[in-house]
Specification:
The protein is α/β, with parallel strands linked by helices. Helix content is 47%, strand content 9%. It has a six-stranded parallel β-sheet with strand order 1-2-3-4-5-6, with helices on one face.
Length: 239
């Protein structure tokens, strides 16, 4: 937990350099109520940064669905009393870890908004999920943020998205992100946000015994950010 001095310094640096900030919060606890309480506490802290949205890893994958429903009942109530906009992420280990529970909860909670990281679903489902196009379209209608990691059948992050052996995986994820951008445009969103969220080891593959990364993470993230910005501009800005 950052100290008040660290928090104040970070806020001043954001203002100095004109940066916006999307806080990431992680619910925790042993029960639904504890997760909901931690959601409320962390959301209060995140709001101090006056961010346009907050990204959340929500709940626990092993809950029975009725407990997941109870968590989102609390979360939606908490969100309704605040100005913060929360994107609940489609992430392994959390409630929205696969397409089908996500679809059911979207049907139940009309105000539930998403950060779509489909790389996790590719890993969980062990396939590219074009066969779930209806759910992807449903998610696109609620997506307010994108994590642009590229997953493959055996993991949530390909070793290098620039490699030709993963071109079909990159192309699939880009189809799904385009569906989100199109839905956001149709909803009248003025701004679309995306994080080129490739992670360090152990997300980033390493060589056995030496733990040397197989690719340069900085280069990958910059390449992805530039590629998606150019694609977005071509599709929606330069018309």
């Amino acid at each position: 937990m950052p100290s008040p001095k660290q928090r104040s310094l970070f806020q001043s640096l954001l203002k100095q350099f004109g940066f916006s900030y999307i806080p990431q919060i992680f619910t925790s606890g042993n029960t639904v109520d504890e997760h909901a309480d931690s959601f409320e506490q962390q959301l209060n802290e995140a709001q101090a940064f006056q961010s346009q949205l907050v990204n959340c890893h929500s709940g626990f994958d092993a809950w029975p669905e009725e407990e997941s429903i109870r968590f989102f009942e609390r979360a939606m109530q908490i969100e309704s009393t605040r100005k913060a906009v929360v994107a609940h992420e489609t992430h392994r280990g959390r409630i929205l870890f696969h397409p089908w529970i996500t679809a059911r909860l979207l049907n139940r909670f009309e105000n539930l908004k998403l950060c779509c990281d489909f790389s996790h679903w590719v890993c969980v489902c062990e396939r590219l999920i074009d066969d779930q196009s209806a759910i992807i379209a449903q998610c696109a209608q609620r997506a307010i943020h994108v994590h642009a990691r590229v997953g493959y059948e055996e993991g949530p992050q390909v070793p290098d998205p620039r490699a030709t052996e993963y071109r079909q995986h990159l192309a699939a994820h880009e189809r799904w992100w385009e569906a989100i951008w199109s839905a956001q445009q149709q909803r009248g969103m003025k701004e679309s946000t995306l994080t080129p969220e490739f992670g360090p080891p152990p997300y980033l593959h390493t060589l056995a015994h030496t733990e040397v990364p197989v690719a340069n993470l900085w280069d990958i993230c910059n390449w992805q950010a530039k590629r998606q910005a150019e694609r977005f501009a071509t599709l929606y800005v330069e018309k």
